[in-house]
Write a structure and sequence with these properties.
The protein is an all-beta fold. It has strands at residues 18-22, 29-30, 36-37, 42-44, 47-48, 58-69, 74-81, 86-89, 93-94, 98-113, 121-131, 138-147, 157-165, 173-185. It has a single domain (18-185), classed as Jelly Rolls (Sandwich), CATH 2.60.120. It contains no helices and 14 strands.
């Protein structure tokens, strides 16, 4: 069997689509009910300058790491701009017992309209998944959120991914290890 050379394989995707890559573990969010960022340092940018978005611009985000949770406690995942504009609020996810289990978040964002708040529109959809202790079963929670009221493309937008537990416990923790943001169209 012959090996396929990468340089001869058909190109799928776009060169230079990478916007940000986390280069170390994110902050451990544990024993707190504060809404805190899952992102730590990395290469690239999480910012889009004012008046740069175009209708149809599309982005994908992938984040993964390790979490622990107490049965029936809740975790809320937020994707916001640093200006406080909500791009996703997962609503409280009722967690099952998990101890140092993998989790992942996959998201896609598309710009539907540009302009000031009330005119600009962005839709986000994706899935939050994690492995629970019982039989190593994966739980999946779909995410869909449309912001047509407070999103504004005429200002600097800097992305942040945050997590918030409803109960402070040393057994409730989440940390990211990988976060990649790519532009997939535009």
């Amino acid at each position: 069997m012959s090996k396929i050379k990468v340089e001869n394989a058909p190109f799928v995707g776009r060169i230079g689509g990478g916007l940000f890559s986390q280069t170390g573990p994110g902050t451990l969010i544990q024993n707190t009910t504060d809404k805190l960022s899952l992102i730590d340092g990395g290469q690239g940018t999480l910012s889009v300058p004012a008046n740069t978005f175009k209708v149809g611009d599309a982005f994908s985000a992938y984040m993964s790491g390790v979490l622990s949770s107490v049965n029936t406690n809740t975790l809320d995942i937020h994707i916001e701009t640093t200006n406080g504009v909500v791009l996703v609020d997962s609503d409280p996810i009722v967690m099952r017992n998990a101890t140092n289990k993998p989790w992942r978040l996959t998201l896609n964002f598309t710009i539907w309209a540009i302009g000031v708040a009330g005119v600009a529109e962005i839709i986000t959809s994706g899935v939050f998944e994690y492995e629970e202790n019982a039989a190593s079963t994966f739980q999946a929670y779909p995410i869909r959120y449309v912001n047509s009221t407070t999103f504004d493309t005429t200002v600097l937008n800097t992305l942040d991914l945050l997590a918030e537990w409803n109960i402070a416990s040393v057994n409730n923790s989440i940390q990211s290890y990988i976060f990649n943001l790519n532009q997939i169209y535009g």
